[in-house]
Amino acid sequence: MSLPRLSVQRLLMLVFVGTLFVMASGPLIDTDLWWHLANGRYILANGVPATDVYSYTAVGHLWVVHEWLSDVLFYLLYQLAGLRGLTLMAGAVIAATGWLIYRLLRRGGLGNNSAVVLALLLALATSPSWGARPQILNFLFTAILVETLLRYRERPGRWILVLVPFFLLWANLHSGYLVGVGLLAVYLVGETLQARWRAAALSRAENLPVLARPDLVRVALTGVLGLCAGFLTPATYRTVLFPLGTLSSSRIQTLIVEWSSPDFHVTAGGLPNVAGISLMVVLLVLVAGAIGAVRFRRGADPTVVLWALVTLVMALTSQRHVPIFAVAGAPLVGVAASTLLAGLGARARPERNPTQSMIVANTLIAAVLLVSAGLFVAGRSSDAALDRAVAAVEPVAATDYLLANHLPGRVFNSYEYGGWLIWKAYPTYPVFIDGRTEVYGDEVFDQYIRTKFLSDQWRQSLNDYQVRTVMIPSGDPLRLVLEGDGWKLAFSDSGTRLYTR
After folding, report:
1. Do residues 98 and 17 make contact, with C-beta atoms less than 8 angstroms apart?
2. Residue 208 and residue 206: Cα distance in Å, rounded?
3. Which of 42-56, 230-244, 468-482 ranks highest by mean pLDDT?
4. Which of 153, 233, 283, 352 is the most buried (most CB within 10 A)?
């Protein structure tokens, strides 16, 4: 049996994918993970809820469970492999997405080594969104969609309709499937422009394939059927409308960190802001490549240009959308980088056939790296390591004390503690608030903000909801007024305090 042709270029790509897996499979605990697990457990026992069941402030309010299938799959994976299984799954999804970003960069004419470097930068730009959360499935599905659509214009046919069941699956995993429908609509516009410009001899991109009218009709039909996939979910038409409500909520956009614009400062908390710096480098490459394309009169691909522009606007508006730009903008980033390198006189080096000794050496290097990475990941994903990571961000001991001592309810909890309480203390202790911001509406969210940030009416919410226990971080300013207002400290550790009255 002959050894695989593991050249230096392929080894570098393997190291890149492995590095992403190692980085993304660490104990990155998202506080919303816990209510997703709790909801998967609830769905398997009771079906998909249509109204809120986890709080006492919004009980009965409409709840669009647009991630129901992800919740179920996450819970089943947790039952099978624990938190370790979820973290490894997250690492695998990010690594697979990074590999597809690499392929999309190569489509732009970029050499292997340059594509690996830029793919790593694009992946690092998405790092604030890493973790075991349904949202990461949007990154992978977007990458699969973009790669599929670019292949379609090289080999058009009826097979494009395979995207209809693809959208159906995506819609039940996350309402972010609408991003995919939007990218398909942009693709249709771009390919239509290219066909018309070519017919009018206006396009300089003569090497681009052109879709015929029947092929464009199939794309349009796929888009319409893909949009309708949202109606084949438990929430039906509300799944389609849900993202619009999130994007139009001023409180979500201004008060939730991940919906804010990316941070481009050189430092954040005294450490380099890797995500912001990586995104800035990619944007500089885009600008320099655009200048080079104008100078050398290089023809543009309208589809990849539109994809990049639309998703760049999304990314600059909200860091939650940076991963979408990292994927959909990758083809244009590849073109821009190859144009820039050509302008600097660099030439892509052809991949040479590796010798037998090189194959053996590279195989040994790859084996050592894979074993080392496996041992490192095993250490970071051990039960003890994951327990420490959870305890560092969640009120583990405080919740145990709450349940063991049957402290009087209702509980006012910090926003970031809501998911954990739903997972561990529901139904004994419904929450005041949690990460499902859209469920609570402006009224409850405003009451939480008034109390949390000590407005003149901070007592009103506690009294209105008959709160008798408060769970907050140890350094929360609310503790100062509670201690002077008749509340008793029931429990305290380095991370959390419990007060009762």
Report:
1. yes
2. 6
3. 42-56
4. 233
Residue 68 neighbours by CB under 8 Å, 6+ apart: 39, 43, 48, 172, 233, 234
Give the DSSP H or E segment for 322.
helix 322-328
What amino acid is encoded at 116 in this protein?
V
CA separation for the pair 321, 139 (Å, rounded): 10
For the residues 346-362, what does the mean pLDDT come to? 55
Chain position carrying tokens 């991949």: 351
Strands 411-413 and 469-473, bridge-based pairing: parallel
List 413's β-bridge partners, or say none.
Answer: 471
User: Can you tell me the distance from the alpha carbon of 184 to that of 167, in angstroms, rounded to the nearest whole number?
Assistant: 11
Across the chain, mean pLDDT equals 84
Sign of CA dihedral 283, 285, 287, 290: negative
Read off the pLDDT band of 223 (50, 70, 90). Answer: very high
Predicted confidence (pLDDT) per residue in 438-466, tens digit: 898 888 888 898 888 888 778 888 988 99
pLDDT band at 1 (very low <50, low <70, confident <90, very high): very low
> Maximum Cα–Cα distance for the chain, whole Å?
80
Tokens encoding 355? 């010798």
Place of tokens 């003569």: 206
Cis upstream peptide for 427 (omega within 30°): yes
pLDDT at 267: 54
4: left (phi over 0), alpha (psi -120 to 50) or beta: beta
Nearest to 90 by CA among 174, 21, 166: 21
Strands 411-413 and 496-500, by their bridges, are unpaired
Joined together, the tokens standing for residue 173 give 């995993």
Three-state SS across 147-177?
HHHHHHHHCCCHHHHHHHHHHHHHHHHCCCH
Report helix, strand or coil for 218.
helix
Cα 154 versus chain centre, distance: 29
Q: How far apart are CA 417 and CA 396, in angstroms?
A: 10
- One DSSP character per residue, 168-226 reads HHHHHH-TTHHHHHHHHHHHHHHHHHHHHHHHTT--S-TTS----HHHHHHHHHHHHHH
Q: Which of 369, 64, 350 is nearest to 235 (CA)?
A: 64
Q: How many CA atoms lie within 13 A of 467 on its CB side?
A: 27
Cα–Cα distance measured from residue 88 to residue 132, given in angstroms and rounded to the nearest whole number:
9
Q: Which amino acid, residue 447?
A: Q
